[in-house]
Amino acid sequence: MSNYIYHYTTIENLALILENKTLRLNSLAHVDDMQEGLVNTSKNMSKHLYVSCWTKNENENIALWNMYSKNMKGIRIGIKKSKIVDIKGKDNNIINIENNDEVFAIYFGDFLKDVEYIKNPKVKLFLDDTSLSGDIFTGLGKYKSEIWSFQEESRFILWALPFKTIEESKHIKLYKDNINIGFIQEFLLNPEAKTNINYIDLKLENDVWENAEIILGPNSSDSDKIILDALISKYCPTSRISILKSKLNIRIK
Questions:
Q1: Which domain holds residue 36?
Q2: pLDDT digits (tens, 9 = 90+) for 8-40
Q3: pTM (predicted TM-score)
């Protein structure tokens, strides 16, 4: 299924996505890999980045089923990546998020990035000539250690700060005519900038579930199928959604 991305999760999380019509990006500070967000100056910038983790691999991944779907009883969502829409304001900040009057969110490069698995995932803050590394903007959240390569991730990645922090930032005030540059300076020169943002909820368009695919996990039951059917019937009755059972034959111990 070209142009599709896949997300392993629980039926409970799907219910929240459907009811709230949002996609949650969680803080990089709370992901499995504790190395994420580190730069080569020993600073950790993970608390300012927010990710939603997917994969482009249409083949079922046993490890992901086991890690993210509660004993393989959850689901795998498959949607067209073009259905996840970002809407930018005048300063290129993302405005189709909840609490957009309190949170300034932005991304550098592409919103959806394929994770690259490398030997040393620490991102360079400065190059040898002390100039800023371009990787600081596009590499954080993108590079992971090779030991995680089995995940084959693609991620939506946002940087974010509370508007209150921005208003108090001396770096941003210096670049009042270009808030993006000031925003970058605040991250680079003040990585300990205060934040109370634990996650970001991106608002989803009404047609996000059109031609979607949902696979029930290898250990799912008939009752799980009934619950899933009820959720689809309630929240997206007119969308064409394929509901399938996992093709994996796994003996659950």
A1: 4-245
A2: 999 999 999 999 999 999 988 888 776 665 655
A3: 0.86
